[in-house]
Amino acid sequence: FNMSGGCKQVAYAFHPHVLYVLCSLLTAAHGLSDEQREFQKVAFDFAANEMAPHMAEWDEKEMFPIETMRKAAQLGFGGIYVQPDVGGSGLSRLDTSVIFEALSTGCVSTTAYISIHNMCAWMIDTFGNTEQREKFCPDLCSMEKFASYCLTEPGSGSDAASLLTTAQLKGDHYILNGSKAFISGGGDTDVYVVMCRTGGKGPKGISCLVVEKETPGLSFGKKEKKVGWNSQPTRAVIFEDCAVPVTNRLGEEGQGFGIAMKGLNGGRINIASCSLGAAHACVQLARDHLLVRKQFGETLSNNQFLQFKLAEMATKLVASRLLVREAATALQESRSDAVSLCSMAKLFVTDECFNICNQALQMHGGYGYLKDYAVQQFVRDIRVHQILEGTNEVMRMIISRNLLTES
Ligand SMILES: Cc1cc2nc3c(=O)[nH]c(=O)nc-3n(C[C@H](O)[C@H](O)[C@H](O)COP(=O)(O)OP(=O)(O)OC[C@H]3O[C@@H](n4cnc5c(N)ncnc54)[C@H](O)[C@@H]3O)c2cc1C
Questions:
Q1: CATH number for the domain including 278?
Q2: Which sites are catalytic (predicted)?
Q3: 313 and 247, same structural domain?
Q4: Same domain flag for 200 and 136
């Protein structure tokens, strides 16, 4: 295509080979084992062939690409860090990060939903008993069924421990009443991992129940209209005298908040990894654009200001990736600094990668603002990573609290 004289063709320049050249240039594969490089390549290829060609349409038409996700599950991406005896891939947190970064180069929104699904499957695998693991995990790992994580409520976002949804024990069932807000996948998914109040105020009164879609008393709000993340639905989840068997409780009564937070530690690495993928793709798109776009008689790539900007973007991407991989390793090894590192990775990486994508859009000039160009979708899709799974202000609270209370 010819951009020196104006746009002639849609610039969804995603060729697997091109992305792979970039990834070795930016050291995404350096330091990884042979096995890790192999599944990284599988994920990059899947992103380039199965996701990137559709990401604009999924966004525009707000399509939840169930069949594509099931194909991803066939590669083991439905339960990446779930144990193999219930259908999971049994991989590490670092492996998971590598996979989500690669997949996100093809579609951030879809990959981010897959990451939430993986988090739910891991929570059931880790905190469920044998019957619960065997009942739910195989179908989640194959993505025959899809999962949602239900913590936020209309009145409790950052202060999640103040949630009000009640679960009253009656015989062998809990009767749920209340509602959850902003639930990713809500209405289209089959399994809801719900944090609800079985006891008094505060985190110790919270339990975790798995609610199945067919349960009477479970309903959904309207599909939210969003800036990005349009390939996955977001809805309120409503409970009206919704009877859930006691056998669907994960862990003991009162352990729900701890389970929710443990899920989120990994979730924060995953969402940061999705931001890495977006930034990775945007550095590529910006580089390609600078090399072809001519102004003032030469390509933009000859302009030192833009060269320096590109260098800064690449440097921040590599620094971000190092932090994510350090946090993933700390979580895998259950290190005492893991919670802080997961929060640091989420804070630093989602902010820096948003800036990288936004700078890439700037480098595209007016074209960057057109929906024909992928860069704007990356910007829209990763903006929300600074808000959810704990806002970046909440990340600062966790990091400083751990620093100030450490003995
Ligand atoms: C697209 C999307 C998908 C989502 N998916 C899910 C999901 O699947 N499951 C789920 O449970 N939730 C989900 N969420 C909800 C998300 O986690 C919350 O929006 C987020 O935790 C913030 O809560 P809030 O929106 O109520 O903002 P608030 O808590 O009202 O915060 C508003 C602002 O004030 C700041 N703030 C609040 N308290 C403090 C403080 N003490 N110090 C400094 N700043 C503060 C916040 O950081 C934020 O900037 C999703 C949200 C979106 C937008």
A1: 1.20.140.10
A2: 389
A3: no
A4: no
Say if residue 42 is in the same domain as residue 57.
yes
pLDDT at 175 over 70: yes
- Distance in Å, CA 391 to ligand 1 centroid: 6
DSSP string, 68-126: HHHHHHHTT-SSTTS-GGGT-----HHHHHHHHHHHHTT-HHHHHHHHHHHHHHHHHHH
pLDDT in tens, 305-344: 999 999 999 999 999 999 999 999 999 999 999 999 999 9
Mean pLDDT of the chain: 94
Ligand 1 pocket, residues with Cβ under 6 angstroms: 116, 148-152, 157-158, 182-184, 226, 229, 234, 384, 387-388, 390-391, 393-394
Nearest ligand 1 atom, CA 148: 8
Take atom 44 of ligand 1 and give the residue whose Cα is closest: 393
309 and 380 share one domain: yes
Confidence at 24, pLDDT banded by 50, 70, 90: low
Residue 346 CA to ligand 1 center (angstroms) comes to: 14
The CATH code of the domain that includes 241 is: 2.40.110.10
Q: From the centroid of its chain, how far is CA 194? A: 18
Which pair of tokens denotes residue 233?
């639905």
Q: Which of 391, 392, 401 to mutate to test the pocket of ligand 1 (most atoms within 8 A of CB)?
A: 391
Do 151 and 237 fall within a single domain? yes
Q: Can you tell me which atom of ligand 1 is nearest the CA of 160?
A: 21
pLDDT above 50 (res 61): yes
Going by DSSP bridges, is the β-strand pair 218-220/234-245 parallel, antiparallel, or unpaired? Answer: antiparallel
- The count of structural domains within the chain is 3
Atom number in ligand 1 closest to CA 224: 1
| Tens of pLDDT, residues 225-249 | 999 999 999 999 999 999 999 999 9
Asked if the model's pLDDT at residue 21 lies above 70, the reply is no
Q: Are 343 and 269 in contact (CB under 8 A)?
A: no
pLDDT above 50 for 17: no
Compute the distance between CA of residue 49 and CA of residue 15 in angstroms, rounded to an integer: 8
